[in-house]
Design brief:
Blueprint (H helix, E strand, L loop, with lengths): L27 E4 L6 E4 L12 E11 L10 E10 L2 H8 L4 E3 L2 E5 L9 E5 L8 H16 L36 H18 L2 H23 L28 H16 L30 H5 L11 E7 L5 H21 L9 H9 L17 E9 L2 E10 L3 E9 L8 H19 L5 E7 L15 E4 L6 E3 H10 L24 E4 L2 E4 H8 L2 H21 L1 E3 L2
Parallel strand pairs: 3-17, 11-12, 15-17
Antiparallel strand pairs: 1-2, 2-16, 3-4, 4-6, 5-6, 7-12, 7-13, 8-9, 9-10, 10-11, 13-14, 15-16
Helix pairs in contact: 3-4
Length: 564
């Protein structure tokens, strides 16, 4: 493996460094001048103090067993080993369809792989939790406050997954495996709420409140189902054999009749009609209106951070810990975190003990190529890889592995204690990560997206990611973001789709000048145009050009391609 080294990022007196990289640059010596100059590393250089991106590209494509459809050799991807990587480079790579598993960074061959994987991102600033999301959050609050355990799962939450692990190897796809949420139940919930509303309202109130009801239904439908934001009016249809007679008053429940009698009694006692929050029609409103349920839905933060009573049954906290064995908190919790990982892999994914050892855990979830950065204009926690630990009564019950990048929080993986499956920790952690992204955005405005890994439309257990709306999918050809509701019709017809509807559009970030690609060869950094004249290796040119095309011109000029 190549040691970490700094790389020149432009012309000047020495290797240029980006924000957060101005560390040790002693030991560099320049040979030649102009764009073909070569930088060499002297013996005085401090390797560990420098932070460029150094990658080693593997020519060709990996063929491996698909963890989703179980095709023995149907999954295909390109990959490279990242000896080190800046957070900006990784941000640019995931915006071109790449993803990491430990230090291995891979990109599916979208038009050839059996289960195309589309990068998906949620827009947290516009996110509103759906009805099923709210159920999960309320379930957690009830458990923490009173120790209540729900009997069975929510109607729109199937049992915890017991399918085989989708991870075929370290080079396979790693995504947070979460509870599926049935899209159909959202529309069912909407229909049920409409029916109950119609039953509760009198003939006159129907007319007065119909516009408001339709508007709230329209908003709910847009947020929960992700349909386009045009107005959708929903009308209830009389049930067969029970046609509505509009000449008669609507049926009313006994509870509603009792409420009405109480209201009339109170009005007779107080002609002003303002006792107990009731008001006579035609009277001016009170200066101190009674408390009523607000039409404004609770925010995600209201639902997550609702205060608990002092006598709460459980103590719960979430800790953000940098992925570094130099961090005392990460080091002290490593053993407990590892034990939880083993328990999760064996129970949920039926992994044998020899496949979820400490070496695999470390390489898979604790080894990251990302260099930690703490710029002044960045989030207080800095950029890099983290474990978000969920502590209940002094022990870890779940760990969300995330990367905090310049423009997003990227979800890597989740493992949790199967004994707490009734809390729907997969959904809960995703909602916490969305809320966390919003929190980081307050300090760092450009950080405004939540990346959920890959969306696989052909795999039912991975379609749940489309529930977190609004969200976008990455076009695999032009690398532009397209709202998911515009992509779904195409995906129903074909596994592989180009989402950009402009036939003239091209990949604006494609490799245009491969000779400007930076190569790290024999402790020297040089443009590829210089390297290929010195090395004279025609056989390796195809691999370099393939690499340049996949990472794009910007990353090709900024990252160092290690050549042996």
């Amino acid at each position: 493996m190549a040691p970490a080294a700094s790389a020149p990022r432009g012309s000047g007196e020495g290797p240029a460094v980006g924000a957060g990289e101005a560390r040790c640059i002693v030991g560099w010596r320049r040979f030649g001048a102009g764009p073909r100059s070569v930088w060499r590393v002297g013996a005085m250089a401090s390797w560990a103090a420098l932070s460029p991106s150094i990658v080693e590209y593997f020519q060709g494509e990996d063929f491996y067993r698909c963890g989703y459809c179980k095709n023995e050799s149907g999954s295909r991807s390109n990959g490279m080993w990242a000896h080190s990587m800046t957070v900006q480079d990784y941000q640019d790579l995931i915006d071109r369809g790449w993803r990491r598993s430990g230090k291995y960074v891979y990109k599916p061959v979208m038009n050839q792989t059996c289960c195309p994987q589309y990068t998906i991102r949620c827009r947290p600033l516009q996110f509103q939790p759906s009805k099923s999301h709210k159920k999960v959050l309320k379930k957690m609050l009830k458990f923490l406050a009173k120790g209540e355990i729900s009997k069975g799962n929510c109607e729109d939450e199937p049992m915890e997954p017991t399918m085989e692990d989708a991870v075929a190897s370290d080079f396979a796809l790693i995504n947070k495996l979460d509870i599926q949420c049935d899209l159909k139940t959202l529309s069912d919930d909407l229909k049920e709420s409409l029916k109950s509303e119609e039953k509760k309202k009198g003939k006159s109130s129907k007319r007065e409140e119909s516009n408001e009801l339709i508007q709230s239904q329209d908003t709910e439908e847009k947020l929960d189902s992700g349909e386009p934001s045009h107005s959708v009016k929903v009308h209830t249809v009389p049930q067969p054999g029970k046609g509505a007679d509009l000449s008669k008053p609507p049926c009313r429940k006994a509870k509603e009749i009792r409420k009405e009698r109480k209201r009339l009694k109170l009005m007779r006692q107080n002609p002003g009609g303002e006792l107990e929050g009731f008001q006579v029609q035609g009277q001016p409103p009170s200066l101190f209106p009674p408390k009523a349920k607000s039409n404004q839905p609770k925010s995600l933060e209201d639902l997550i951070f609702e205060s608990l009573p002092e006598s709460a049954s459980h103590k719960f906290e979430v800790r953000l810990v940098p992925v570094s064995f130099e961090d005392p908190e990460f080091k002290s919790s490593f053993s407990q975190s590892f034990s939880l990982y083993v328990k999760y892999q064996m129970a949920i994914h039926q992994d044998p003990p020899d496949e979820c050892g400490k070496t695999e855990f470390t390489r898979f979830l604790c080894s990251s190529p990302l260099e930690a950065e703490n710029p002044a204009n960045g989030p207080d926690c800095g950029y890099g890889s983290f474990h978000q630990q969920y502590w209940l009564d002094g022990k870890i019950i779940a760990v969300g592995v995330i990367d905090i990048l310049p423009y997003c929080v990227s979800s890597v993986y989740l493992y949790y204690d199967p004994d707490y499956s009734f809390l729907s920790l997969g959904v809960y952690s995703a909602l916490r990560e969305i809320a966390f992204t919003r929190q980081l955005h307050e300090k760092t405005p450009q950080l405004s997206y939540y990346y959920m890994g890959f969306y696989i439309h052909s795999c039912p257990k991975m379609k749940y990611k489309g529930q977190y709306r609004p969200s976008d999918l990455l076009c695999p050809e032009t690398y532009v973001w397209v709202p998911i509701e515009q992509c779904l019709p195409s995906l129903e017809n074909s596994k592989y789709c180009r989402f950009n509807q402009d036939p003239e559009a091209v990949d604006e970030g494609r490799s245009k000048e491969p000779d400007r690609l930076q190569v790290f060869y024999k402790k020297a950094i040089m443009p590829y145009g210089v390297y290929k004249k010195q090395r004279r290796d025609p056989g390796g040119e195809a691999a370099v050009l393939q690499y340049a095309g996949l990472v794009g011109q910007t990353c090709a000029e900024r990252m160092l391609l290690f050549r042996d």
